[in-house]
What does this fold into?
Amino acid sequence: MHIKHILALSALLLLSQTNVAQNPKKSNSVEIYNQIEKLNFLGSALYIAAHPDDENTRLISFLSNEVKARTVYLSLTRGDGGQNLIGTQLRELLGVIRTQELIEARKIDGGEQFFSRANDFGFSKNPTETLEIWDKEKVLADVIWAIRKFQPDIIINRFDHRSPGTTHGHHTAASMLSVESFKLASNPSIFPEQLQYVKPWQAKRQFFNTSWWFYGTIEKFNAADKTNLIALETGVYYADLGKSNQEIAALSRSRHQSQGFGSTGARGEETEYLEFINGDPLTEKKSLFEGIDTSWNRVKGGKNIGILLTKIAAEFNHNDPSRSIPDLAKAYSMIQALDEDHWKPLKSAEIAEIIAQCAGLYLEAVAQNQEATPGSILKLKLEAINRSAAVMQLSTVITLPESKKTVQNLNLKTNSTNTINLDLKLAESLNYTQPYYLKDNATVGMYTVNDQENIGLADIIREVKVVFNIKVNEIEIPYERAVIYKYNDDVKGEVYNYLDIVPAITTSIIEKVLLFKDTKSKTVAVKIKAGKDGVKGNLKLELPKNWNVSPKLIPFDITKKGTEQIVSFDVTPPSKADEAVAKSVAIIGDQQFDKEQIFINYEHITKQQVLQSAEAKLIKTDLKTNGERIAYIMGAGDEVPASLTQLGYALTILTPAEITPQKLQNFDVVMTGVRAYNTVSALAFKQDILFDFVKSGKTMIVQYNTAGDLVTDRIAPFPLKLSRDRVTEEDAQVRFLAPNHPVLNYPNKITSNDFEGWKQEQGLYYPSVYDKAFTAVLSSNDKGESPKNGALLIAPYGKGHYVYTGLSFFRELPEGVTGAYKLLSNIISLQSTQNSVAQ
Ligand SMILES: [Zn+2]
It folds into this structure.
């Protein structure tokens, strides 16, 4: 590692870990110094994989913090198809969480985050299937767009492009597209529509970030020919940060909380292997950037900037970083004079922020409220303070998006607070705040983003911003800040959120799936929330004509912004079985509002507003239940309890401490939530109680768990071994292995129709080895695979039944899949069915 001109600064808290993700960045001397060093490195790396959490944070941190390269992680998807260990959000809402987790991970390891429009539609066993469901041309275009936009010198693939079928199909597909793009990105006849924004680009070389894992065993890897491999010593210790590279990588990886990827950092030597696969070969094999000019010399007229930045770094004063400001301002103006359009904007933005950090220059624009509607007046309070001796002036303030300028000419005297109050009229045409890629309807495989310049952007695009134009040594530097809302929380302290632009009215049908088992009417409750003061109008519930809604319109009149009101419709279903989507629409004057406001609010990420169509699924079914009393033990989190309550069951959620023989006497069925045996360690000591419950003539239903990290080896009263078997093709044909088993016949007759319309997958982590006491009821498999028989296993135990099922009820029930409801009702009824036969 190269020598750093660093003083002992061990007392400083570095890479400070805050749980409030959106707090403004305030750098200390070491961080500023490192940013200055980074200014003098003009090289970049693009790391490509398929999902949030695929990326090797050790290598990203090494490239960013040790090599000082601009390092971008292109994750083709946002991870929508995964599971969620911290809440019940699935699909696109999970994608929103995982996007934010990646953004937070990059804040720690120093990389940048980018995406394609590809949707994580769920597990895929090979790249052929993946590329059929993704729009291959569009994903290829997005990879090429990323290469042209970031102009990487080197491209690194996480996965091997030559081994389809050995890992998730998305993984191999990502690497195949990366390899295909390597040459194509430089060809101007490929996706020429991109060239109004970017230039064709040829990266110098491409690698595959291999490891022993890809060879099967460490022994095989040790014995393998390594002529094409470059070994990098990445176990660097950053004395100035007080952390090893692996420790930083672990902090970054631990942001993936929704995936339960908390990671512990290692120390000491560590080697990363990269296999050269494309471009200019390495000869010395010491650096991935070998033979690439990564100095300012690569930019025409840049040489003197490099010389000046070297001087700034050498003379940097850790006790008073502001002494670097005159030279930094000079370097800033030299960069402005360049005739170049890639490094110039990038380095301008970096150096501007470094100047602000050196000065302790704090700029913020605070709104009075968390939410504002288009067309309203936004009251803003601006704060500008220069906490250094550097001479600075706030010349003008520009509000965006309408670019309204006000002259300030305010001298920012050392450490004296300046506040400016501004009233900002928001345009009627202003977009609502939401993840931009969710604005238009997606397909199974792709998100829709029509504006080329937005494609791949990680975060929400916030339009309401303030630009502070600051004069430093007569050089004007613009500082853009998104408008925030902040408040003091008695427990957490200062809490920062961004301003959200919201509709004047949002509504939400409270139950997302409503089941009608007969022709009696049901109450459908709708929550109305005012986005501004004084909203008055009517609410209607839109349904197909064969469903009867009363009343047709419900008037509402809400005086205060933020207030919620609940109203109810009576809905009568048709006599025949049917499914319908109900939409709630608020009408104010000639405007219609049909959005539901959803918040995603976890401490480790920035609070997100998502606007979805305000709707619910209504199902008229002839499904029968026997009214069992169910005890539910939550695992990682799922919405199965709400779905069962919909079916009319009396359901109680039990904490592990409540699992006692006495308490269980009140129930007929115990059901464990998804991954309960992965996440609830207390269950290891409750198995005897639960098995005795079964023995006494009751039913226990265990939903899917993963094989790797079970809290007990004794998950069932008989031997049962989980595997990675899954059926990802939701429409795979289901064969009945035990057609006469009560579970397929009572109280509901199950037919192959009941496996139609399933979403994303049939099931996962099926047991592959199980005791002969179990009856395997169902069999199915993905195309080209052997039959998988572990989806639904039922064993009599004592007088009762133990059931293990990997079927994805947690996905299907909230989506209103009737067949899944019927089958689960039969499982719940196993004991009642047996008792009625016995009588
Ligand atoms: Zn992955």
